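Quick start: read one record
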Amino acid sequence: MVLVATLAPACARSQQEAAEPPAQVGTATIAVATVTPAPPEAKSSAPAGKKAEANVCPEGMVLVEGEYCPDVEQKCLEWMDPPTSRYHQFRCARYAKSVCKSKERVHMRYCIDATERAEPGTDLPRHFMSWTSSKKLCEAEGGRLCRESEWQFACEGEEMRPYPYGWERNSAACNVDLSENIGKPGRLVDHRSVVGSHEKCASPFGVQDMAGNVEEWVQADGRGLGSKMGWKEVLKGSWWIPSRHACRQFQVGHNDVYSGAETGTRCCKDAPPREVAAR
């Protein structure tokens, strides 16, 4: 069974996703998103001093630096769906302001892909990627899988936003909440969209597509809830279905070789220390 959880203190509800439609319903797709012109560069809300250091990361990556709160309280004020809906416990329409419950924040500094990794020769995100194949891809290019806490911080920023764009769910901001999932029997409709094409789906650091489109594999590091449940293979961001898209929500239950039409890749890389970058 695929298990999905969210912040334990966040919405005062058990959020196991037993009712979410199985992701692995086939290995073929029947419709492909139309490729649109290349999107504009992501706009970052990072402080000016940090923007000046952006070139310390390889091309296509964004510098993320700041103070990360490991333990965050996020209370849902309004749900999108009625209690009888299969997605009721996963879609919060409006959150209260986040509260950091940790005694101390953790300083983080690293590089992360500005968008999801695209299929070679296309602008659509890679899919049918396993945790193992994602790890190999990142390492072959001198990077690594993002740690769970790194992915979360790149998504939420120091404000601890529930969604990369804020505290209220906006189904139009990202490639999310599409209900037409099944085409021909046993086949998913391919609703992937061009990476970086949803300008409003950007985090405080200017990282795009961290909600929806395709899920992204991360490495457990003991700081995220997926890690604390004992899994090394964690999926973040969800995909185009009407389900969990908050920065701290996650999915576990798949092994390191599982792949599906919804599983993609994003890589991270260590950033040089400030004194080295300044030389």
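The longest strand covers residues 61-68.
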